[in-house]
Amino acid sequence: MKNIAVIGAGTMGNGIAHAFAQSGFSVKLIDVSEKSLDKGMNTLAANLDRMVSKGTITEQDKMNTIGNIITYTDIEDGVINVDLVVEAATENVDLKLKIFKDLDRYCEERTVLATNTSSISITQIAAVTNRQDKVIGMHFMNPVPIMKLVEIIRGYNTSDEVTKDIMALSEKLGKVPVEVNDYPGFVANRILMPMINEAIETLYNGVAGVYEIDTVMKLGMAHPMGPLQLADFIGLDVCLSILHVMHDGFKNPKYAPCPLLVNMVRAGKLGVKSGEGFYDYSESKKAEKVARQFTK
To answer: What integer pLDDT is reported at residue 286 of this predicted model?
Structure first.
């Protein structure tokens, strides 16, 4: 596999494009919005500049990486003659199903279709295509260029050959792939989201404040950041969406989202991306400082 298409130029999409392009793959970055593509490429360039300044890569490496990416606003044009498509659109099941129906029509029969979903069933997504054996999950962690883990999720009909190929491909990116089966939340979020939700419940019940909860988890459990800070970084809307998927999938009340989380999302307090969540990121320099901390 050498020719890769990435659907979505947001945080995960531009990070996935970055990882593939930096590893020498030809990448087509696709988004319906030219503005989103410009923003995504600007973010990618800024991340590369940071790597150059740290001596992680050279200026030539940066130029080669950017040169390996072509942007498209038309999905049909963008997926011509690609070996793999990685979908990284918004975590919305209806949107993903539509995208995969389109990809199944536009892509060659040999093309493998992957989704970066953090919780939605791979089997459900594959079912809308005529290539269920070639549909797989590639759940990258944020920030993609830095984080080593990729959850490789097999749908019910994903073939052994495709799984083996995607595991090997992930290793070529310098990642550590871990194969898991297709159940709500997979492994990462099945464990992480209940912890975050319980931290929000602890705040909601008045047991302790935001700083105190995060400090206990950082110093007492050796977590690099507290669960409330991490929720802000992930996006509270994303956390809520994942909890809904797990609650619906397992029908277990332990996955029901805390009312405080629901209300914060309704109020538009989504974390870093909105400027306010459990912490205040309203000052641009403060937000940049926090973001830098996460990418060290």
So the answer is: 55
Give the pLDDT band of residue 205 (cuts 50, 70, 90). very high
- Give the tokens for residue 203: 């705040």
- Asked if 187 and 178 count as a contact pair (C-beta separation under 8 A), the reply is yes
pTM as predicted: 0.88
In the annotated binding site for NAD(+), the residues are 8-13, 31, 91, 96, 118, 142, 273
**Known catalytic membership, residue 189:** yes
Ordered domains of the chain (ranges, CATH): 3-181 (3.40.50.720), 190-291 (1.10.1040.50)
- Given the residues 36, 47, 68, 118, select the one marked as catalytic: 118
Note if 33 is an active site residue.
no
Residue 139 annotated among the catalytic residues of the structure: yes
Which residues lie below 8 Å from residue 286, measured CB to CB, with a gap of 6+?
280
Annotated binding residues, written as ranges, equal 8-13, 31, 91, 96, 118, 142, 273
Could you report the per-residue pLDDT of 82-121, keeping only the tens digit for each?
999 999 998 899 999 999 999 999 999 999 999 999 999 9
Q: Active-site residue among 18, 47, 87, 139?
A: 139
Whether 27 and 81 have beta carbons less than 8 Å apart is answered as no
Q: How many residues does the chain have?
A: 296
User: CA–CA distance from 11 to each of 163, 191, 217 (Å)?
Assistant: 25, 23, 26
Q: Is 116:138 a contact under the CB 8 Å cutoff?
A: yes
Per the annotation, the verdict on 205 as an active-site residue is no
d(CA 83, CA 104): 13
Band the pLDDT of 282: cuts 50, 70, 90. confident
